[in-house]
Amino acid sequence: MIRRGDIYFVNLNPVRGREQECERPVLVVSSDAINEQPLVVTVIVGTKGANVRKDYPTNVRVFAKESGLRMETVFYAFQVRSLDHGRFPGVRAGALPSHKMAEVDAALKLALDLF
To answer: Residue 82 CA to chain centroid, in angstroms?
Structure first.
């Protein structure tokens, strides 16, 4: 089952404009109550940490040892997408601990103006 805080590599194509494309890590941010339904799963998109030279308040930098991924990754809280369950592979690539999810929550609040 897909859970909040899980990380999967998902093919995001087709895309338009400045959307992140190809297969990328995505971090599940929707609640487990939603994830259990046959609806969609809400995620934020990640990219290689080496590609992001400056950190912004809407970015969450995650080191490999914190996530289970092979490399440092930056998740963009301003790149929120809802994806069909069929896009997700059967095995997750990693997961974030609660202290990193707290950073994600703060970044999402800022990106979505939820203060």
So the answer is: 11
pLDDT in tens, the chain (115 residues): 999 999 999 998 866 655 565 789 999 999 999 999 989 999 999 999 999 999 999 999 999 999 999 999 999 999 999 999 999 998 999 999 999 999 999 999 999 999 7
What backbone phi and psi angles, to 5 degrees, belong to 94? 175, -170
For residues 54 and 61, what is the distance between their CA atoms, to the nearest angstrom? 10
For the chain, domains (ranges, CATH) are 6-111 (2.30.30.110)
Cis peptide before 14 (omega within 30 of 0): yes
Give the whole-angstrom CA distance, residue 50 versus residue 60: 13
What's the one-letter identity of residue 115? F
- Give the global pTM: 0.93
